[in-house]
Structures are given as structure tokens and as C-alpha cells.
Amino acid sequence: MEENIITLRGYSGLALAYIGDSIFDLMVKDYFVRKTNMQTEKYHKIVSGIVKAVNQAELIDNLIEEGVLTEEEMDVYKRGRNSAVHTKAKNATMGEYKKATGFEAVLGYNYLMGNKERIKYFTGRALEKAGYTDYGA
Question: What pTM does this model have?
């Protein structure tokens, strides 16, 4: 595992957020496809509402306040949040967007470290926050 940590330090916060964004989107999509059968436009509307930057920012604030993040995850979050982003979500403030980038970096870090249970935990928290409490059932 030490080798993974050394290797991961070579990734920028934005690189970790890039993969984390995809993983989070995939996990939420996977949940809905497995639990429901609907038109793709409906999937898109629901999933987009859950994974949007405003919700990610609120979730990461809650996780930090609860002390859920490990020391390593907190370091990764700060790296992602403090990255020089050159775009902004259309329905989020720059502060929310940066927090969401930090959250996605944490997901990317856990994905590359092989910490599938952590990714599942964070996805479950996001789904629970959106009113879906049967994740993992």
C-alpha cells in the first residue's frame, strides 16, 4: 500500500478529481439502473440532481464537520479544493465548485487506492441525502 501512496502523490488534485467525478457519476447511475427501470432522460435528470456541485459541496461540509474523513482524505480534499480551476459549474458558486472538486479528488484518491468500501460509503451518503435510503440493500 505504501507504494500506492507514493505514486498517488504524483497526481494533481485536479487529476484525482477528474477520475473521482467519473466514479461518483457511475456509482450513482449504477444504483438507479439496478433499482429502477425508466427512460434514460429520467435517469439523467435524477442523477444530475444528485451529483451536482452544490450537493457535493454540502455533503463534504457535513463529512468534515462529522470528522468522517481520514487524515489522508482531508489532505487530498484540500489539494483538490485548492487547485487552480479554470471553469465553474453553471449553478454553483466558485466556493461550492472548489469544495465539489475537493470531494471528487477524495473519491478519485480512494478509487486509485482500491478503497471500494469508502467510495460506496460516500455514494451512500449522497444518495441518503437525496432521499434514497436503500443503497446497498
Answer: 0.90
